[in-house]
Design goal:
The chain is 24% helix and 26% strand. The protein has 5 helices and 9 strands, in the order αααααβββββββββ. A 6-stranded antiparallel sheet has the order 1-2-3-9-4-7. A 3-stranded antiparallel sheet has the order 6-5-8, with no helix packed on it. It is globular, with a radius of gyration of 16 Å. The two termini are 16 Å apart.
Amino acid sequence: MEIDLDAARPAYSPGPDTAEAADVGARVAQLRADRGWTLQETAEATGVSFSTLSKIERHELSPTVTTLTKIARGLGVSLSQLLETARPVSMNGRRSLTRRGEGQSAATGTCDNKVLCNDLVNRKMTPIRTRVRARDISAYSEWASYNAEVFLTVLHGTLIIHSQGYAPTRLEEGDSIYYDASSGHLWVSEGEDDAIVLWVCAE
């Protein structure tokens, strides 16, 4: 999940360790350049700090889903449009395939995210596989919140979902949940093993 957990938490801001992770910074820089915006203008439009945007573009910081959502909203695109590898598709019945170990990586101090099937243009859903490394909500600097609906299923371990609107919810392996992500929420693992979840974000 997160999901700026930004520069406010430098110890939780490892840079990307794969070529796929670097694509996010290039995509943000390209969208900003298309609009003729400076970093400061982009910061004002998105609500994401100048320093955080600069680090993302220089591939020194892997943004969370919450931060990416703020950037997308400020740039006037959807989250899926921000994350897509803009490869044109000229046929109906389109599809995308992600093999084991593949996907666009975005690691944070709390979660390791892999965006799956990110080569489709204008898709309506964003599937993500996440290893949740946080064990306490104190690892986060803010509540995750974005304008989308989320379906999540636990593939391994135990996940606790903390919400500003509900009591903490424990999900075991095989459990699923569907919720409105506009309400503040956070994910943490319980137990020795990291929880691994597959979730789909629909805007």
